[in-house]
Design brief:
By secondary structure, the chain is mostly beta strands. It has one helix and 16 strands. The protein folds into three domains: about 60 residues, SH3 type barrels (Roll); about 60 residues, Nucleic acid-binding proteins (OB fold (Dihydrolipoamide Acetyltransferase, E2P)), CATH 2.40.50.140; about 55 residues, Nucleic acid-binding proteins (OB fold (Dihydrolipoamide Acetyltransferase, E2P), Beta Barrel), CATH 2.40.50.140.
Length: about 180
């Protein structure tokens, strides 16, 4: 048993007799009330999400999680396909399990898949990925004010804001936690 204050994103817990993965955690301390932990969890059995509140001193039962390193291979109508580089086994995951991670998946990208009770529950991306810009407007000459950005479409279909000097065909580094431009790759 762990305190609710110790909950972190990516942990698996038992809640109301069901195993759930923690998607988000926020510690709140309102005015003159007691502190509490607001968490968004997704039940493994049903795939449904719930917004739950724990008192800061409440106890939560943690479930062991197994992590497996896999590489993204391809996407088709059946889902997203990953390969285990050690055994060459294929791991197939559905789009709803990936969430926003699908916007950063490129061929041979190494990711971690979290398993709770033998079932894949979440995909963890590296902190940053390198993606190619496939569509971006030209920056206008004379636009030299600081922090001027323009939209750019990446090879995965995601659109982000980049500085004016970035051109089509360039590789850029993206922060997977915030989706922000970090620099040229």
């Amino acid at each position: 048993m762990a305190a609710a204050n110790d909950l972190r994103k990516g942990q698996a817990i038992k809640y109301n007799g069901n195993t759930a993965i923690v998607l988000e955690v926020h510690h709140r301390t309102p005015g003159n009330l007691r502190a509490f932990v607001q968490a968004i969890i997704r039940y493994i059995s049903t795939g449904k999400s719930a917004d739950v509140r724990f008192g800061s001193t409440d106890k939560v039962e943690l479930v062991d999680i197994e992590r497996k390193q896999v590489e993204f291979s391809y996407k088709d109508n059946n889902g997203y396909h990953f390969i285990d580089p050690e055994t060459y086994d294929t791991v197939d995951l559905q789009e709803n399990l990936l969430g926003e991670a699908k916007d950063y998946l490129v061929e041979n990208l190494s990711v971690q898949v979290l398993y709770a009770e033998g079932k894949a529950v979440e995909v963890e991306l590296p902190a940053s990925v390198s993606l190619k810009v496939i569509e971006s407007a030209e920056g206008l000459r004379g636009d030299t004010a600081s922090n001027v950005t323009k939209p750019a479409k990446l090879e995965t279909g995601k659109t982000i804001n980049v500085p004016l000097f970035i051109k089509e065909g360039e590789n850029i580094k993206i922060d997977t936690r915030t989706g922000a431009y970090m620099g040229r790759a």
